[in-house]
Design a protein that fits this description.
Pfam families: Bac_luciferase. There is one protein chain. The protein has about 350 residues and is of the alpha/beta class. It contains eleven helices and twelve strands. It has a single domain, classed as TIM Barrel (Alpha-Beta Barrel). It has an eight-stranded parallel barrel with strand order 1-2-3-4-5-6-8-12, surrounded by seven helices. Strands 7-10-9 form a three-stranded antiparallel beta sheet, with helices on one face. A hairpin with a 2-residue loop joins strand 9 and strand 10. It is globular, with a radius of gyration of 21 Å.
């Protein structure tokens, strides 16, 4: 074998093949509501019921996922499990998930119960995205939920520890000593949190904002969820940095020896301009570029561009996005306050005019 062949083989091992071709395509909603003249989502009730309606419509279009962002102390979706369970009861095929739940706020035992119930109602369609959280509406909001980091820990450490407990509990092994004289008969041995949903442990995703946390997620056996922003690590364009993050994740996954293939999602704001209303809403974003900002005093972040153009132009632009090429799942952020009908139109345009031309369908 030639030296060049050895070099090519080594490069192929270090840099896994991109997941080009067919992709799962879903939507990601932040669930905003506001009582303003131009909002079609005026109340929390509107946000919740319209989220269910949009998930049903997305399934009818042939989309693959309905995902929801979780923010506390904000006029957005904050308690995902009742919503996910309701969507699971109204749909048959579409994946339902979060992107992401802030683990600083979570009791992992209670969360395992809620997640197990929602997963069973949906017959195993829950894809649960979790993370250490993002900048908040209030200072140290997790304190009001009764949590604080342990001695010597940061709030990020606390979130990761909560996540590790959740993963352990979802394995389904018993750990609690049963009462000798229980109210109801117990199965033999130690007891586990119920209801337990087999397989849910493999459908937990970590929302990683850096290369390092992506590697940590791989070592924990979680899928990778990468958003429309990440820590700026090197100054390259956002999609290039995100692709590097995905490759680092996959390399760490292989080194950890997990027996299954992981999943990877990326989120994008993509709008096909096919009507006058589309141009009115998003035409000004047609020359969008990456943005730089600060998540806190020390964390410089790069924010991915918005894609807004006629379908044929979008196809050319998206074909150059390295991170989309690396991922198996694409989540389309939706402007939920524009209403269910308009967001259904946006999803339909991508699924009909853009995805097939790129080989995603």
């Amino acid at each position: 074998m030639s030296a060049r062949s050895h070099s090519v083989m080594a490069e192929s091992f270090d840099r896994p093949t991109r997941c080009t071709g067919v992709k799962k395509i879903g939507f990601l909603s932040f669930g905003h509501w506001s009582d303003t003249p131009h909002s079609r989502t005026r109340t929390a009730g509107d946000a919740l019921t319209q989220a269910i309606d949009l998930a049903v419509a997305a399934e009818e279009l042939g989309a693959d996922g309905a995902y929801f962002r979780v923010h506390h102390f904000a006029r957005q979706l904050a308690s995902p499990f009742p919503l996910l369970a309701a969507i699971g009861a109204r749909t048959e095929r579409i994946e339902i998930g979060t992107g992401v739940i802030d683990m600083r706020y979570e009791n992992p035992m209670y969360m395992a119960e809620d997640a197990g119930a929602a997963d069973l109602i949906s017959a195993g369609r829950l894809q649960l995205g979790i993370s250490r959280g993002s900048p908040e509406q209030v200072i140290d909001g997790w304190r009001y939920f009764g949590y604080r980091p342990g001695e010597g820990d940061t709030e990020a450490d606390m979130a990761r520890k909560h996540a590790e407990v959740l993963l352990t509990v979802l394995e389904g092994d018993g750990f609690a000593q049963p009462e000798p004289r229980p109210m109801f008969p117990n199965p033999p041995g130690l007891l586990r949190v119920e209801p337990h949903s087999p397989g849910l442990r493999e459908r937990i995703w970590w929302g990683a904002g850096s290369n390092g946390t992506a590697v940590w997620a791989a070592r924990q056996g979680m899928n990778l969820m990468s958003s429309t922003l990440k820590n700026d690590e090197g100054g390259a364009p956002f999609h290039v940095q995100q692709a590097e993050q995905i490759r680092a994740f996959r390399k760490a996954w292989t080194e950890a020896g997990w027996p299954r293939e992981p999943r990877v999602s990326v989120s994008r704001s993509i709008f096909a301009l096919t009507s006058d209303l589309d141009h009115a809403y998003f035409g000004d974003d047609s020359d969008s570029t990456d943005k730089i900002g600060y998540l806190d005093a020390d964390t410089r972040a790069v924010f991915g561009r918005t894609y807004a153009a006629e379908p044929d132009v979008l196809v050319g632009q998206l074909a150059e996005d390295e991170a989309i090429a690396e991922a198996d799942t694409l989540l389309l952020t939706v402007p939920n306050q524009l209403g269910v009908d308009y967001n259904t139109h946006l999803l339909d345009d991508i699924l009909t005019h853009v995805a097939p031309a790129l080989g995603w369908r």
